[in-house]
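Please decode residue identities from the backbone states below.
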């Protein structure tokens, strides 16, 4: 989907994904893992920045990226209002060069927002934006929908796409927003040493 498509959705307020709060699965993950080193984290397709602020609150050096100018503007406004520090940048995650390589990359409803035929590009981008020893944390949306966005996926597809380059550290059905209960799968992957 183009930048214009997403920007129009913000401009017209057609933002059904917007829950006004970070991913419950991410909130629980960060609370359960206070021991993790607080490195840099990239959140592509960050929307209005709830997940970016959750990482910032937990002490990470958090950067949000989005293809829609309204998303990064709203993210900056909300982050300032919350008194938090995080960076936001306009970027096409699939095709732009990363401004730096990150220790972590957090996925939450970007994989299901792009066209399914762009998923090879998505996996290449994750590898490009992550450090060689980086970690990929994903709250995946396991729905059957073929006419998205959101476009569905399965655990089998995720395993097929990521297991060649990543070792699975943890897999859990996370706490979800009420209308996504039982439809999400949290996968924590660590990049394989090469
Ligand atoms: C379904 S929304 C999810 C937003 C946020 N992750 C959330 O869960 O609230 C998808 C977001 O990805 C952004 N997006 C779509 N394609 C993108 C791309 N190629 N690069 C960066 N952002 C993209 C859209 O503008 C939109 O903000």
């Amino acid at each position: 989907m183009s930048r214009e498509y997403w920007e129009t959705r913000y401009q017209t307020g057609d933002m059904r994904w917007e829950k006004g709060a970070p991913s419950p699965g991410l909130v629980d993950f960060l609370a359960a893992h206070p021991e993790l080193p607080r490195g840099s984290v990239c959140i592509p397709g960050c929307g209005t920045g709830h997940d970016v602020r959750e990482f910032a609150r937990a002490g990470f050096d958090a950067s949000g990226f989005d293809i829609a100018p309204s998303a990064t503007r709203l993210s900056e406004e909300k982050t300032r209002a919350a008194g938090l520090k995080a960076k936001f940048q306009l970027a096409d995650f699939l095709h732009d060069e990363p401004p730096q390589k990150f220790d972590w990359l957090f996925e939450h409803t970007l994989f299901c927002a792009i066209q399914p035929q762009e998923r090879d590009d998505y996996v290449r981008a994750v590898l490009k934006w992550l450090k060689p020893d980086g970690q990929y944390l994903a709250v995946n949306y396991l729905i059957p929908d073929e006419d998205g966005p959101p476009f569905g996926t399965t655990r089998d597809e995720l395993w097929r796409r990521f297991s060649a380059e990543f070792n699975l550290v943890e897999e859990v059905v996370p706490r979800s927003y009420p209308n996504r209960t039982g439809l999400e799968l949290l996968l924590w992957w660590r990049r394989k040493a090469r």
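Observation: The two ends are 33 Å apart (CA to CA).
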